Amino acid sequence: MAPLGRPLNEPTPLVAGRVGLRVVRPRDAEPLRRLLQANRDWLQRWEATHPSGRGPVPGTVSMRPTIRAMRRQLRAGSGLPFVVLYDGRVVGQLSASELSGGALQAGQIGYWVSQHVAGRGITPVAVALAMDYLFGVIGLHRIEICIRPENAASLRVVEKLRLRYEGRRASYIHIDGAWRDHECYVLTREEAVGGVLARLGTAGA
Q1: Does 8 map to a domain?
Q2: pTM, two decimal places
Q3: So where does this one cross the membrane (predicted)?
Q4: Cα angle at 41 between 36 and 46, to 5 degrees?
Q5: What single DSSP character describes residue 27?
Q6: Per residue of the chain (205 residues), what is the pLDDT tens digit?
Q7: 117: domain CATH number?
């Protein structure tokens, strides 16, 4: 997959009601580290891991190198890394990655939010904001979200946004120490006429 071939401009914050997305910044390093540490038990089942077993435990090391790598993706036109905001406070992350140009014009979205704000409708709004930006401003044609079949909370997000189910990808990503199957959900720009946020029937959480 070829990247978009151009650096991405850093968008102004995307906001709907109490929910917002803002491109991650170096100053987010410590708030994100604290969130990851506090949510270790909540997030571990869904965290990507290296097959070798190498890599730090999330929340135990500085996030600054990770944030620098994310912002390099922005400059390379291959990724768009956001923090999720609720009432202006950082409560999670959302990343649009594997952004591709050429004949594909596609990308993927991944996300997490802190347990202390789960169940408030934050994630569907955040995902809708990101998808509308990727379709309307970046000009992507296709966006997919891949979810472990055991992750009921994430499955509810794609159900609320009415993404189309495309099938199961066997042993797709190394998660929590093993290769895990994922369910693939997709939306194309033609399917999102009127905007993804409008599918929620709300201006925000």
Answers
A1: no
A2: 0.91
A3: none
A4: 80
A5: G
A6: 455 768 888 999 999 999 999 999 999 999 999 999 999 988 888 888 888 766 655 655 678 999 999 999 999 999 999 999 999 999 999 999 999 988 899 999 999 999 999 999 999 999 999 999 999 999 999 999 999 999 999 999 999 999 999 999 998 888 888 899 999 999 999 999 999 999 998 544 5
A7: 3.40.630.30
